[in-house]
Amino acid sequence: MRVADRIVSFSRGARRMGTAALVAGLAMSAGCLDLKPPAACSVTVAPASLTLPVNGAATIVGTAFNCDGNTIRNKRVAYSSSNAAVATVTAEGNVIAIAVGTATVSGTADGKSASVQVTVTPEQAASITITPTVLTLRRTNTRQLVAVARNAQQTIISGRAFRWASSNASVVSVDQTGLVAAVAPGTAVITAESDQTVGQATINVTEIPIGRCTLSPATSRLTVTQTIQSTLTLFDTANTVIPNLGRTIAWTSSDETVATVSGSGLTRAIKAGSATVTASPVENPQITCKSDLTVVDARIVNLVIGPRTGSLRIGVPRGFGAALLDSTNAQVPPGRIVTWSTNTPQTVQITQAGIATGLAIGPARIIATIDGVADTVTFNVTRIPVATIAVSPLQVSVFEGRTATLTATVTDSVGNEVTDRTIEWISGDVSRATVTQGARSTTVSALAAGAVSIAATSEGRVGQATVVIQRIPVDTIVTTSTAVSLTRGGQSRVTIQLRDAQGNQLFNRLVQVTSSDANVATGSQSDATSTSITVFGANSGSATLTIRALNSVGQAEGKATTITVTVQ
To answer: Which CATH architecture has domain 476-567?
Structure first.
């Protein structure tokens, strides 16, 4: 029984005993009380493990138990650390983290012990400061920044590594030691980070001020079209050469008709004369540097007329040019005045612009001269070739035996009508139509019905038209005899003439002969010219033969004529 339990029992018995009896009871129990805590059978320490940052602290509690498993009050538990360089512990159980690592903290009573595993982690940064926090640098300068981490108590955390970064590396760069370099004018924010805590510094970059500048070459001499690249050198106020990169330079020419200059300082000679090229930094226009330029015309050593092939046409202008070459065989730019002439003025004329026009057929010589240099070229002057021949009308109708007129229009290759060309007329069928030869027209004589192609040719070009020849209709048939007497079995030839309405005789026509009594007499065409028929007597008697002309489709045309035939 514990002492506390005995005291409770006595307190309850005091209610039944009197005061004297209680005093007597206590006196008797005094010999049984032992005020020294019993020996510990076991010890526990709570918590079982701890994780602390450096300089962090936490309290552990050690408890001793008797052999019945009951807590022993007032039992002193002694604490100790296996690695005081990592973590220490006070007599009251207050564990203090000293350095990163692990240590075992033990609680001991009466030879019994228990332990706590303590893990010490790096101290967390609560704030980071960068020195300096604001900095102005000139381009190309460098500066070392320093970052310091502090804990929540604003105590500096030593040995801390930082991750450095720039918000704009094209303006300011930074390495992982905190060394910044000014790259270009502008502003950037530099950060140092540790334990997800960030410190900042603002860096302003300014341009290196320009003190003066020079251009080289200071003087130059160019021929027209030549170029030269000027070299600009910048100096700071300490007379030290500084780079041109990133600087805006204004380039100007005092006379752009003589020479022009590009934004990179490339000067090009335009024409003979003098000019001054000036370069000035835009950021400081009061600073200027100049280069004097003299431009001269290139010396011409050769002249070549072009084109050199082909021919000249009478009345057709043709342009010529002259290539001017210097001593290096390079072409001299245009603008120089060339004199044009000819020693064959009877065949060609040429203007001072180099425009030649043929006057007459024959050779023509063209001459170009400049600065004592000359070139000549010879061409043959010819007519403009025929391009087309148009015959009109394209189609005409005419009765056989009549005539028709066709006209040819000749056009040259530049579209002009020409009248000085020889034209040959050709009939596609001389049995139906013939042609006469004329300068511009022909007379077509219609011989026989049908369609005939008539061609006009000149210089290999051909134009065509079609002449449609129509038959003249037969009006009357005239015979040499209107009555014929025959013996049975005999025959007689009768001459006939086919005539049109004007009385003209017609040939090559078909005629039809019919008999009123074929048993007595018949008749037939006896030749191919329609100029006679043959009458045949068959049996005794009398019959009438009717003669009619037939057109091209076998239809009767014109008036019929008759012959009376008597057979004896």
So the answer is: Sandwich (2.60)
Residue 369: exposure state from Cβ atoms within 10 A (0-12, 13-18, ≥19): middle
Q: Where are the domains of the chain?
A: 42-121, 127-206, 210-296, 302-370, 386-470, 476-567
Mean pLDDT per 10-residue segment, the chain (568 residues)? 36 40 41 65 93 90 90 91 94 92 94 93 89 92 94 85 95 96 94 93 91 93 90 90 86 95 93 93 91 89 92 90 86 87 95 94 95 94 91 93 93 86 93 91 91 94 94 90 92 91 83 93 76 91 93 86 94
Q: In 30-104, which residue ranges form alpha helices assigned H by DSSP?
A: none
Tell me whether domains 127-206 and 476-567 share a fold: yes
The tokens describing 320, both together, are: 């010529």
Q: Cβ(510)–Cβ(525) under 8 Å?
A: yes
Tokens 């003299």 map to which residue? Answer: 294
Contact 412, 387 (CB under 8 A): yes
Residues 6 or more apart whose Cβ sits within 8 Å of residue 329: 302
Strand stretches in 416-460, DSSP E:
417-418, 424-427, 433-435, 441-446, 450-458
For the domain spanning 302-370, the CATH number is: 2.60.40.1080
Q: What is the dihedral of CA 157, 160, 165, 171, to 10 degrees?
A: 70
Its pTM stands at 0.36
- Residue 23 three-state SS: helix
Provide the 3-class DSSP secondary structure of residue 22.
helix
Q: Of 456, 314, 463, which Cα lies nearest the Cα of 385? A: 314
What are the angstrom distances between the C-alpha of 316 and each of 278, 339, 381? Answer: 52, 21, 10
Answer for the pair 300, 336: CB distance below 8 angstroms, yes or no.
Answer: yes
Q: What would the CATH number be for the domain defined by 42-121?
A: 2.60.40.1080
Tell me the C-alpha distance between 472 and 504, whole Å.
10
Instruction: Return left, alpha or beta for 110; rule: phi > 0 is left, psi -120 to 50 is alpha, else beta.
Output: left
Task: Calculate the alpha carbon distances from 380 to 198, 312, 344, 346, 374 in Å.
Answer: 93, 6, 11, 13, 21
What number does CATH give the domain 210-296? 2.60.40.1080
Q: For 77, list phi and psi in degrees, rounded to 5.
A: -110, 125
Q: What is the 3-state secondary structure (H, E, C) of 94-146?
A: EEEECCCEEEEEEEEECCEEEEEEEEEECCCCCEEEEECCEEEEECCCEEECE
CA distance 73 to 37: 7
Please state which CATH number belongs to domain 386-470. 2.60.40.1080
At the topology level of CATH, where does 127-206 sit?
A: Immunoglobulin-like (2.60.40)
